[in-house]
Here is the input.
Amino acid sequence: MAVPRLARIEGYAIVSADGMLANAAGVMPPELKIEADQRFFHGSLERADAVVHGRHSHEGGPKASVRPRLIVTRRVVAIAPHPDNPKAVLWNPAGATFEDAWGALGIPGGVLAVIGGTEIFGLFLGIGYDAFYLTRADHVHLPGGRPVFPEVPALTPEEVLRRRGLRPGPKRVLDAEKDVILVTWEPSRASI
Here is the structure.
């Protein structure tokens, strides 16, 4: 049985000035929970057919429990149903391909929203993003925090995306007072 091709893979992250999405304890601090970015994030998830995240990441919001999802974990050998959520599939990329995991969700195609954490964002750099929505909150600093990609802080998030063939679109101001900027990164035409 052939697995249907996804229409799009989209990444969503808000990062601090130093490229972190959480503090050293792995917690997203209130300073990164910007109302305008939260509206953009949750509004975007309304278009998504499914989300993918690690065991410790979550989307929050009132519709989180009804949205189909892949949860990346090493606690299963390959693919397994989630013990408490019939809309979720547990996936270990070391034991099963992304195509197999997507097939286990039973969704015929559409948009997959990648929402974190670090290893999952890095994993999908290899699988390929059709868009990565990177929000910067440059008023926040999280030294020693959890980076958006494994290569950060040696590289900036933007350098990581650029090295993977993604190019930035125009800057969109989400919150001028807090200097919160969103940039959509998409594959350059030469890499399509």
